[in-house]
Amino acid sequence: MSRPAPTLGNPQNTIEILNKYKFVFQKKYGQNFLIDPHVLEKIIRAAQITEADFVVEIGPGIGTMTQYLAASAKGVAAIEIDRALIPILQDTLSAYDNVTVINEDVMKVDLKKLAEEMNGGKPVKIVANLPYYITTPIIMGLFENHVPAKSITVMVQKEVADRMQVGPGTKDYGALSLAVQYYAEPEIVANVPPNCFMPRPNVGSAVIRLSVYEEPPVKVKDEKLLFAIIRASFNQRRKTLQNGLGHVPELGIPKEMTVHILEEMGLPASVRGEALTLEQFADFANRAALLKEQS
């Protein structure tokens, strides 16, 4: 079934809608609306949206990207926190019969349940132009709550996109890099300059696609322990791993245990967390879990 082509995406139409509804941008929601059709088309291509897909969109704004998604996908659930945008969305999406708008804070929505109900238990695709201040909690929430997603294609701050895909030994490598790479394969698909948004942000953005793994690339006995170790080792990244973990008593990994495990792994006692790969963190966590069981 063919649906109407998107009408939003260029600055004139966006300004017209904003003026019509006397919309005021809310700084607390980090609102920056896309005004570049080329970027919007790139996102749809990168997310590989087809007529068989159900899409969950986080932060539809005035419905610019939602129109593009609705024109390509089987169905769209768009979650918007700002009540002032709901009448605008009802207007801009009135031509599309396959969109459900949900006026909620995405951090309070049970996305796993929503995805299962809306798509009959099959994995969904997630697309979002994320507010910079809440990017990491949203992405980590999707992974940790095991929302059934094939892919997550998001517009984020360029620096955050870089952080998601780098490896050990670089200054951007950290807990976010490891968490994302445990759950998905990250790929930056487009860099987006500030002039593609209204209002213009102060920083560059990037579109990154996270292709979600069916099974993580490493096997761990205790996922929670793995991520607790990763967080502790990057909390003070200049510290050695034994000091980083030793300063978090609730982990139950004293310095001597860390030194013993590192020795078994053929790593120096002075190694820092930022030098370890995801495989090495998984190996370390499995050995620590075993020693904790035995003690």
Poorly predicted ranges: none
The CATH architecture term of the largest domain is 3-Layer(aba) Sandwich
Shape: elongated
Q: Give the N-terminus to C-terminus distance in angstroms.
A: 63 Å
CATH superfamily of the largest domain: Vaccinia Virus protein VP39
Which terms would index this structure?
single chain, 295 residues, alpha/beta, Rossmann fold, Helicase, Ruva Protein, domain 3, seven-stranded mixed beta sheet, two-stranded antiparallel ribbon, 12 helices, elongated
Characterization of this structure:
The chain is of the alpha/beta class and 295 residues long. The protein has 2 domains: 11-212, 3-Layer(aba) Sandwich (Rossmann fold), CATH 3.40.50.150; 223-294, Helicase, Ruva Protein, domain 3, CATH 1.10.8. The chain has helices at 11-20, 37-47, 64-72, 86-92, 111-118, 135-144, 158-165, 175-183, 223-235, 241-246, 255-264, 278-294; strands at 33-34, 54-58, 75-79, 99-102, 124-129, 149-157, 184-192, 197-198, 205-212. The strands form 2 sheets. A 7-stranded mixed β-sheet has the order 4-3-2-5-6-9-7. The longest helix is centred in the C-terminal third of the chain and has 17 residues, at 278-294. It is elongated. The N and C termini lie far apart (63 Å). The relative contact order is 0.10. The model has no long low-confidence stretch (mean pLDDT 94).
